[in-house]
Amino acid sequence: MSHATRVRPAVTGHPGVRPTLHAVPWALGAGVVGVQIAFPLTGGGTPTLTVLAVVLFACASVGHALLTRGPGAAVGLVVVAGGGGLAAEAIGLATGLPFGQYAYTGSLGTAVLGVPLVVPAAWIMMAYPSLIVGRRLAAALGRGRGVTTVLGAWALATWDVFLDPQMVEAGHWYWLEPWPTLPGVPGIPVSNFAGWLLVALLMIAALDRVLPDRHDGDDRLPLALWCWTFLSSTMAAAVFFGRPSVALVGGLLMGLVGVPLLVVLSRRGSDA
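RE: above sequence
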């Protein structure tokens, strides 16, 4: 289809939402970037900065879902990702399944069932953009829900390759039996990545059914935040935190989704 005949959809949000409200999630997203830029300046982030970054990101995700897909989508995101994340973490603490034996140190604030509340908020913050990433790539491939689930789950689970070493080093949680480790990621058992992938598959599959896929919606914010997380996490591990092997492994694993996504987004931008 030529540039002259292509018609772009005019609708960018949920019907009835004032356009000015869409600036709120973007402002929250900008706050996320600002707070995360401060992490290297504080040796990896203080507990306050960690909680603030997660809360801002989670609110940006929920806010975007609300404004582009409606109240039901926002509630569904909180219930599935937040509730599912809390359940998975509580089971993990009690049984060691599916992540392995670990424990929180109490540095992240108020906890429910032994799980700091900021942790299910972190599942919310990344599950939503990961779902959007999976949908965008599946659409580019001409595939459906199965591919969306696999790619979205990979986009979510591989983020933890960066997250866990940083949080363990910051003293927020620790592993009772941190072996065998994921190659290049010392101190983090491979069971953790396997557990994350399993939970992510279930979570993204559920979210894909609960959250409408609005092809006429503006998903630039969640896509931008996911790409920022991919690129900034890789750079931070390599340059600021002295973990080049984590940067390599995490960058390669997350890049299996991230690089094709950047290609798809750049092509779409050139067609505008």
